[in-house]
Design a protein that fits this description.
Blueprint: E1 5-7, H1 8-32, H2 38-60, E2 62-64, E3 78-84, E4 89-96, H3 100-109, E5 112-115, H4 119-124, E6 132-137, E7 140-151
Parallel strand pairs: 1-2, 4-5
Antiparallel strand pairs: 3-4, 3-7, 6-7
Helix pairs in contact: 1-2
Length: 155
């Protein structure tokens, strides 16, 4: 018996991600990280772990037509609402694979896209609602509590 229920739409979306990553992961890393580096290795490990967790989720989750679009942890393509513990403000981020098209869409819809390889994206990926994360970014250190994770309309 599964302790997670996904909407059929969320399940289809996550399954597509798994297949897409298998097809593009080596060419993607070659494009964005052409030389061997610690950063490339860390990002490859992050995506490997992500794919394992995603596969486990998709295989084990119960599917329902009536389920909402909540997700049990932050995925690529999910909309994450966070509460900034220092500034007492709420922000929304969409976690994405970096691409020029994704950033163009962000400019059109006004949503803050964050690359899964950015400090914020790496801190959010695979985290659950209620978890607190600390982000070391060029602008300083930020502490966020994750308040909501859901499938985006475009996801």
């Amino acid at each position: 018996m599964s302790d997670c229920i996904l909407s059929e739409r969320a399940c289809r979306n996550l399954e597509k991600q798994l297949y897409a990553f298998e097809d593009i992961k080596s060419s993607f890393f070659d494009e964005y990280f052409p030389e061997p580096s610690v950063e490339r290795s860390q990002c490859e490990d992050l995506i490997k772990d992500y794919m394992i967790r995603l596969g486990t989720l998709v295989k084990g989750a119960a599917k329902s037509r009536n389920a909402d679009n909540q997700l049990p942890f932050v995925t690529i393509g999910s909309m994450v609402e966070v509460f900034d513990l220092d500034f007492q403000e709420t922000y929304e981020f969409r976690v994405i694979i970096p691409s020029k098209e994704a950033y163009r869409i962000s400019e059109r819809d006004g949503i803050s896209n964050v690359s899964c390889f950015s400090p914020t994206g790496k801190a959010l990926l695979l985290k659950r609602e209620g978890e607190t994360i600390e982000v070391e970014a060029p602008g300083g250190t930020f502490c966020y509590k994750i308040t909501s994770i859901k499938l985006t309309d475009g996801g």
